[in-house]
Design goal:
The protein is α+β, with helices and mostly antiparallel strands and 145 residues long. Helix content is 21%, strand content 39%. The chain starts with 7 loop residues before the first helix and ends in a 9-residue tail after the last strand.
């Protein structure tokens, strides 16, 4: 296993500086190695939707940020790497509890990075959501003539 090109601390600082998710979005980087990230998210009543389940936007946000961490583990800190595609499949009704998301990079290309994510409740092994996504890498800087 190769080391990540970004540390867990650097990713957390980058997220805090550029993403303003609010005080309820309390997460921790559980693991970050080259091409793989695992992030935990504490439960919050703000994530509840009718029926006592976690909202889809909360699951999306966790999947997206975990993929972002995995992408940066491969390409280093590039703040302009952005989501270009994301698909979620909701498999089970997640109760309002702490979540874990794990992202694996499938392919690093010159312009796009593709990944696969799985989300589950921290105390249960069954996957509640599967996602796949793509990040666009920033254009390389060109030198002025």
């Amino acid at each position: 296993m190769q080391p990540s090109l970004i540390s867990a601390e650097a990713f957390t600082q980058l997220f805090d500086e550029h993403m303003h998710m609010g005080d309820d979005f309390r997460f921790s980087v559980l693991e970050l190695t080259r091409g793989r990230a695992r992030i935990g998210l504490e439960a919050s009543e703000k994530f509840r939707r009718p029926g006592g389940t976690i909202s889809g936007p909360t699951l999306f946000a966790l999947a997206d940020m975990t993929l972002w961490a995995a992408v940066l583990s491969e390409i280093g800190i590039q703040t302009m790497a952005v989501t270009s595609d994301m698909t979620l499949h909701f498999l089970r009704k997640p109760r309002l509890k702490a979540l874990v998301c794990e992202a694996h990079i499938l392919k690093v290309g010159r312009r796009l990075v593709h990944g696969d994510m799985r989300l589950w409740l921290a105390d249960e092994p069954e996957v509640v959501c599967h996602a796949s996504g793509t990040y666009a890498r920033p254009e390389p800087a060109t030198k002025a003539p």
